[in-house]
């Protein structure tokens, strides 16, 4: 069966199958299976488009098992745009293949029907709290029990003001930053948002949180629903344009990666292509706009060793690794310790830990072992999915005394309280 053109010719032919990506691919590291490597998947993508391979369980399974972490892109000497190829292949699969109903229920209803909508996500947390309060969570089926383990024990709701003025005292004109409130970040990591606003205000930014912004579309783009992702991109571009911001700040690596690629996502839409490129150029991760904190002495973190885990879509998709480390080191000082395999995916990968729980668990265990080997008492990262996955992995290993913090909370903490929160 010829699936028809869904890959750009230049993209499809850019891989020379050199194999330099293999050692960076988490699923290949775990399985040693060439089919679960970037070049193996690219071969299947080409064969699927050319009609040399069927859209069968083996082909779809290989594509599904890819985390989309894009570590292969960072390692590739030929500049293969693997992330784009993966998204277009998944789009072709979702539009031309009918999945079994349990998979459709999980992907279309439980994930796409809940996660992009903060109000629905908040409602979905109610039965989780009830199950925990009644002590029945441990009696649930394994996959459901593992999913519930990802939800934090305590979720603190934080309402952000639509406008927060700069508190900088240098006398300069404040820049105007728009903050993406997001979905999981807004519901599960409200304190990190509040810390982000305080850090930006101190750095000389007036912060605007547009109330007409929506989900960035990352879940849809990564899951093969590109048309839905494009619609969300258009709405967000318009919302932040109306807010009149100089920069759009994102504290969720996966969201930031997608928003920086709105220009590519809407390149084929004449009415939006230029606006999308201009918008993407204004999108910055939080660590890109923060100066080294002035309150940091660099003399060491009193609560013990601190390490940093690279969120895949910050390190590989956005190629940002130095800035967050510099910020963490400025506070941790001599207590900073580098994490082995820091840039190997933790297994979260958006909603991968729900759709591919077995491989996600293997990567979670690998990451947990590496964290424990550092002796760190604090783990910092810059993406909500990573934070949930790391916390659940450490809890499962009995390391409940190791704290997991968003970068914003870690940087904000020395100015507010001492010790873990």
3D architecture notes:
The protein has 421 residues and is α/β, with parallel strands linked by helices. It folds into 4 domains: 9-96, Fumarate Reductase Iron-sulfur Protein, Chain B, domain 2; 101-149, no CATH class; 163-289, Rossmann fold (3-Layer(aba) Sandwich), CATH 3.40.50.1860; 306-415, Rossmann fold, CATH 3.40.50. It has helices spanning 9-12, 26-31, 38-50, 57-64, 71-75, 82-96, 101-111, 118-134, 142-149, 184-188, 190-202, 218-222, 226-243, 253-260, 262-265, 273-282, 286-289, 312-315, 322-332, 352-355, 357-374, 384-396, 407-412; strands at 163-164, 175-179, 205-208, 247-250, 283-285, 306-308, 378-381, 403-406. The strands form 2 sheets. The chain has a 5-stranded mixed beta sheet with strand order 1-3-2-4-5. Helix 22 (384-396) links the parallel strand 7 and strand 8. Helix 21 (357-374) packs across helix 22. 45% of the residues are buried.
């Amino acid at each position: 069966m010829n699936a028809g053109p869904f890959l750009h010719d230049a993209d499809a032919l850019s891989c020379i199958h050199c194999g330099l990506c293999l050692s960076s691919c988490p699923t290949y590291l775990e399985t040693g299976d060439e089919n679960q490597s970037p070049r193996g998947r690219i071969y299947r993508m080409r064969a699927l488009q050319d009609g040399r391979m069927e859209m069968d369980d083996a082909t779809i399974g290989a594509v599904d098992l890819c985390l989309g972490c894009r570590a292969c892109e960072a390692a590739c000497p030929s500049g293969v745009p693997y992330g784009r190829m993966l998204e277009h292949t998944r789009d072709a699969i979702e539009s031309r293949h009918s999945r079994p109903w349990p998979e459709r229920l999980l992907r279309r209803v439980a994930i796409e029907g809940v996660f992009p909508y903060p109000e629905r996500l908040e409602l979905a947390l109610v039965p989780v709290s009830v199950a925990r309060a009644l002590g029945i969570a441990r009696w649930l089926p394994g996959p459901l029990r593992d999913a519930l383990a990802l939800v934090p024990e305590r979720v603190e709701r934080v309402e952000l003001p639509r406008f927060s003025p700069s508190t900088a005292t240098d006398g300069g004109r404040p820049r105007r930053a728009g903050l993406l409130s997001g979905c999981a970040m807004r519901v599960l990591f409200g304190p990190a948002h509040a810390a982000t606003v305080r850090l930006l205000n101190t750095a000389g930014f007036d912060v605007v949180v547009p109330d007409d912004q929506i989900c960035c579309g990352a879940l849809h783009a990564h899951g093969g629903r590109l048309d839905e992702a494009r619609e969300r991109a258009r709405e967000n571009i318009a919302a932040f344009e109306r807010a009149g911001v100089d920069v759009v700040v994102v504290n969720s690596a996966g969201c930031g990666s997608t928003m920086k690629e709105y220009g590519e996502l809407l390149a084929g839409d004449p009415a939006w292509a230029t606006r999308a490129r201009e918008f993407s150029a204004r999108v910055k991760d939080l660590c890109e706009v923060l100066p080294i904190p002035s309150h940091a002495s660099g003399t060491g973190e009193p609560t013990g060793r601190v390490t940093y885990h690279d969120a895949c879509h910050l390190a590989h998709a956005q190629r940002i690794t130095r800035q967050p480390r510099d910020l963490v080191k400025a506070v941790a000082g001599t207590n900073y310790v580098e994490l082995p395999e820091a840039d190997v995916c933790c297994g979260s990968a958006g909603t991968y830990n729900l759709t591919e729980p077995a491989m996600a668990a293997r990567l979670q265990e690998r990451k947990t072992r590496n964290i424990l080997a550092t002796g760190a008492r604090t783990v910092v990262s810059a993406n909500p999915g990573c934070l949930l996955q790391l916390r659940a992995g450490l809890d499962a290993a009995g390391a409940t005394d190791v704290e997991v913090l968003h970068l914003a909370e870690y940087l904000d903490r020395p100015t507010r309280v001492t010790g873990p929160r």
